[in-house]
Amino acid sequence: MLExxxxxxxxxxxxxxxxxxxxxxxxxxxAALLLKPNRTVPTExxxxxxxxxxxxxxxxxxxxxxxxxxRQALGGHGAVIRTAVGGYLxxxxxxxxxxxxxxxxxxxxxxxxxxxxxxxxLAEALALWRGPALMGITSEPLLREEGARMEEMRLNAVxxxxxxxxxxxxxxxxxxxxxxxxxxxxxxxxxxxxxMVALNRSGRRAEALATYRQVSQLLSEExxxxxxxxxxxxxxxxxxxxx
Length: 243
Known about the structure:
Layout: E1 2-5, E2 11-14, E3 17-19, H1 24-34, E4 41-42, H2 43-51, H3 59-73, E5 81-84, E6 87-90, H4 98-111, H5 115-126, H6 140-167, H7 171-184, H8 189-201, H9 205-223, H10 229-239
Antiparallel strand pairs: 1-2, 2-3, 4-6, 5-6
């Protein structure tokens, strides 16, 4: 079975064996199709996704050549890339694409009522990531729009997993991870709030309050902003002896 990966380097495997796709623009074409599985992607959109503002002179003919090369690279599975009215589509199941599996698992976690199940499902979803989304392609529109959207999905899943684990009382084990996350994503206030909660529940109230002062200073000096309502509410709760 063919398996496609977008959550990290753009890649294809056939029963676990890697398939070489070749040029970055060819991988960009594959990614543009995979981001809309089983739906027609218009020719104009594919040209813009692959070549951005500098399309070749005979863009439609060049795209047709790239589609042919992509089908050839997929060997006996080349028929998954289909010509449609006004464009092309890739015909695959959700199980064949890591992004689709990630979305299914996070949706299932959203419906779960048991925090242990929520944590398990989100951990399974996050384990699908092999690095920054869409690695190995050079398409600025894809990286700017789709890459950023996928990274936001990943970070939301991380936040939700940590909330579930805080509910399960795993605050002590979360402190090192949250320190790393606040360093890597300093403008993401949710990670700071979660770090304050984890520290406070670990009996480190003074560190939790110091964390609030740290993020307050950072936001003020770098962005000219005050902490958001969730951070302020968490700070107030800690001051009054809450969790």
